[in-house]
Amino acid sequence: MRKIILFIHSSINGVVTGDPSEDKTNWAVWRNSAGIEEGSQYLLKIFETADTILLGRGTYEDLSRKWPNTRGSSLGDKINNAHKLVVTSARPHENLKWGEFEAPKQLTGSNIEEQIKDLKNGDGGDIVIFGSPTLVRSLANANLIDEYQIVMHPVVVNVGEHLFDNLNEQKEFHLVDVKTLKVGSLLLTYRPAKA
Questions:
Q1: Is the pLDDT of residue 35 over 60?
Q2: Which of 92, 94, 115, 184 has minimal CB crowding within 10 Å?
Q3: What's the pLDDT at 130?
Q4: For residue 66, what are the contacts with CB-CB under 8 A and spacing of at least 6?
């Protein structure tokens, strides 16, 4: 079975976006750039088993403007050449693109959770989500995320969305690993506790 792995950057108080009144996809306004670079090496490790990226609509629109222009980096090559799936809810996007690379496919309709379960049971490598907090919350509510890798930066932010806002119920996790990054950030790896 394919795993769904979340990789996301967070403040100490759980904020994972930028300021919603400006550009909420720009969480980089509060992060430490050295921590981003080191964290990117761990994201690259996920691609040793992952071949598919799952994105929410807003994150797709942000990343599709940036990543296809990234050339010459191992992470850029992995991201640009991975299969991409964009969850677009009930309103399909007319023309998804990813620069000169393979265009993303859409998951749309009222049965997104079932479609993702089918993906997990299908052929292929693991599936990685980075960013996409709205999608993450939906998948967490449906118990479809197998591993949470959170780069926690040493900063508290007073605006932005929290990763686990609006969950339907309490979620229990097991700590799998902690790595201390050189800049004082932590890479925390959790898996859902089995009932």
A1: no
A2: 94
A3: 86
A4: none
Closest C-alpha to 146, from 84, 108, 194: 194
Question: How deeply is 44 buried, as exposed, middle or buried, from its count of CB atoms within 10 A (0-12, 13-18, 19+)?
Answer: middle
Extract the runs of DSSP E, i.e. beta strands, from the chain: 4-11, 50-56, 83-89, 105-108, 126-130, 147-153, 173-180, 186-192
pLDDT at 11 exceeding the cut of 80: yes
Beta strand residue intervals within 19-100, DSSP E:
50-56, 83-89
Q: 3 and 139 in contact (C-beta within 8 Å)?
A: no
Neighbours of 194 (CB within 10 A): 6
DSSP letter for each residue of 133-144: HHHHHHHHHTT-
Q: Kindly state the average pLDDT of the residues 13-38.
A: 68
Q: Do 154 and 32 form a contact (C-beta atoms < 8 A)? A: yes
Q: Are 34 and 28 in contact (CB under 8 A)?
A: no
Question: Position of tokens 């394919």?
Answer: 2
DSSP code, position 15: B
Termini Cα distance of the chain: 19
Type of residue found at 79: I
Residue 64: pLDDT over 70: yes
Domains of the chain and CATH, by start: 18-188 (3.40.430.10)
